[in-house]
Amino acid sequence: MDRRLAATYLHVVAVEGDVERAERDLDLGALRDQPAQALGQRHAARVDADECDPLEVVRLLDDLVRDAAERPLDRFAVENDLPRDGVGRAHEGTPSKGVPGAPMLMRLLLSGLTIMLYMRIDQVMLAEMVGEREVGLYSAALRLSEVWYVIPTIIISSVMPSLTEARARSEELYYQRLQQLFTYLARVAYLVAVLMTVLANPLIHLLYGESYSQAGSILAVHIWAAVFVFLGVGMGPWVINEGLTSLFFFQTLFGALVNVALNIALIPLLGGLGAAIATLVSQLTAAYFALALFRRTRTIFAMENKALFKFWRSK
């Protein structure tokens, strides 16, 4: 399996492209007191204009995570006198052993399409079902929620060599470090979620103005999806090492279906708040409950349980 492509797949499923979208839109000074309907029109226009090219998604995201996923592994191999074939890039002058076959490429393409649906469906459904003003309120809240999603990718890139080394030494040490990783990610995610929940309304008022006051409740709900985004990224090294790339496609598809179904039910009743609830439940389903369905992933499900409900313990 090509670890570079697998790491790309890890990144897109857990983060779903939202960090790039948030950073691209995060011009808060220009948006203060801008009518929410105008902001919604901007988002609707951009969503309609975006081209759905999964091949380009794979290529761009491969470049995005190359430094985060491939170089730490290469460095670990060099430091420990290990061959780089199958860890990072192949030895110069020899063909790469990690070129994915047709089944893996098909999973990547399908995942690219599913991720694009997952990224855009909330705004599209809001615009069609309740109007562009609600899209503006929702997107304002997302800018303050999704910007935190970069944190787990930074953490993973720093601990990946340590996890690879632990796996080479013993299975017990490997799973011990995985549990420590999950627990640490849960602590950080809880801290972010609690802090943003408390500050949601004041931040919205300060950064956007009184006309966006309804976005505060949307932010207070949507930020809790970060807990499961963090855990989803945290399981990436394990999925890469075990070669379970098909699991990511299932998780993404499952989460997208749940998201669409809940949006249909909740958006007419609650508007942007309903979309935020749908996002939270779909992330909970994809990154947590789905792991209980398969024998090979139940170990990770148990580790996430411990991280979520016993996060104050050091071991």
Brief characterization of the structure:
With 315 residues, the chain is an all-alpha fold. The N terminus is likely disordered.
Features:
single chain; 315 residues; mainly alpha; 15 helices; 77% helix; disordered N terminus
Explain what this protein looks like in three dimensions.
The longest helix is centred in the middle third of the chain and has 38 residues, at 171-208. The protein starts with a helix and ends in a 6-residue tail after the last helix. The protein has one domain. The chain is globular, with a radius of gyration of 20 Å. With 315 residues, the protein is mostly helical. It has 15 helices and no strands.
How is the secondary structure organized here?
Blueprint: H1 3-15, H2 18-25, H3 28-31, H4 36-49, H5 54-79, H6 102-129, H7 132-145, H8 150-169, H9 171-208, H10 215-222, H11 225-234, H12 236-242, H13 245-270, H14 272-287, H15 298-309
Radius of gyration over all CA atoms, rounded: 20 Å
H and E string = HHHHHHHHHHHHHHH
- The end-to-end distance, rounded to whole angstroms, is 32 Å
The unreliable regions are 1-29, 44-100
The helix-and-strand class reads mainly alpha
- How many domains in all? 1
Report the helical percentage: over 70%
Discrete helix count:
15
Calculate the mean pLDDT score and round it. Answer: 75
